[in-house]
Amino acid sequence: MTYPLLVVPFALVTVVVTLVSARRPGAPARLKASLWTALVLVAFTAVFDNLMIAADLFTYPEQHISGIRIGLAPIEDFAYPICAAFLLPAIGALLPAPRRRSQRDAA
Questions:
Q1: Per the count of CB atoms within 10 A, which of 29, 55, 60, 105 is most buried?
Q2: Phi/psi at 73 (nearest 5 deg)?
């Protein structure tokens, strides 16, 4: 099982960074937006991965996947969009706010 093992570090980093960012202002709204984004990305992944696999654009060797599938797509494919939906906003919340240029700095 290669692909499931590749998912583990991404998922762990996502969980840790998301939990750390939960202390920042606006966390409930950000997490809700991440959840909706994840749902949309999972739906797109389900549709387009299945279409691409059905069109023989790529395949997954059976010995490298968990065996759990949604249609033709292995379940591991869905971890990356979920991680992206939560990790990127969490990283953004942890970055320092950009400094605003004052009128004097602009001159």
A1: 60
A2: -85, 130
